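Input/output pair, single chain:
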Amino acid sequence: MSLILFNKPFGVMSQFSAHATRQTLAAFIDFPNVYPAGRLDADSEGLMLLTNDGKLQQEISHPDYGKEKTYLVQVEGTPSAQQLHSLQQPINLGDFTTRGSRTVMIEPPTWLWDRDPPVRERLNIPVAWLSITLSEGKNRQIRRMTASVGLPTLRLVRSAVGPFSLASHPIWPGEWRLVNEDEWKQ
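Output:
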């Protein structure tokens, strides 16, 4: 079994097959027969796990297994207590209802790298950082959740999956490292 931790840069597609206009995982990972265990949108950054073990891939990515994923989310505006409470509850997004999340406002992460290109800034609109932990991860879910409560997402970084965290396993954008199965089982 092979398990890779990869820090996906902004703008990269979460696939190995060629894309007409964007870089893909193939530009960064030269390791045979591994596949993403879950995806990140091109405009999201951060931790991805890749494996050659189909069972492990399912365990990491499928919501039925309840593996937690934590995201650092820069939002436009200053969240109210009601907005934070709403993000913690199940939210009906039209095509599905989310599970509840652990959402808290945090200080800007000091260990986080600068994004290239930088996030747009509007001097008259404040920004805030949230930590959102989910046990599911549907397409554009966090962006849709924050928008639904009036806090548009400006930057989205997956910082942790299961036992792995970019804060405790530092990997720069575009870099990867191989880990062993025992590290996952802890």
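The beta strands are 3-8, 35-36, 45-51, 69-76, 102-106, 127-134, 153-161, 164-165, 176-179. The chain has one domain: 3-181.
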